[in-house]
Amino acid sequence: MAHEPAVVTPEASSTTPAIPKNPTYPKRNHTTEAAKWMGVLADWDIKIEALLKAVPAGKDLGEMGEKGRVLAQMVGSRDQIRDSAKRLPREVTHMYHEDLERLEHAVAALGRLFMKYKSL
What we know:
Blueprint lengths: L33 H20 L12 H22 L5 H27 L1
């Protein structure tokens, strides 16, 4: 008679996680903010795309003078928003606050640049 290996099944009442986590690592509690910031990014993407489509064909932003410079800065601010919005929900403690501050400053700067562009 062959011996069958013992099958061990975890008990349903077991509360111990399969992979233990370091209790000193801070909990990520900002994961729900991703949708908010990606929405802000999508709004700015639409506005900037519309402005970029207005650039004459074959013309670089550098050739457009002040308008081109402001538009290039807007693209840079949008990229900062994109980077921070992707990273923010995964950050914890002081890293989260640094990224949140950077993101808020980028959104404010983009708003100011947009108003400046419209006034040129």
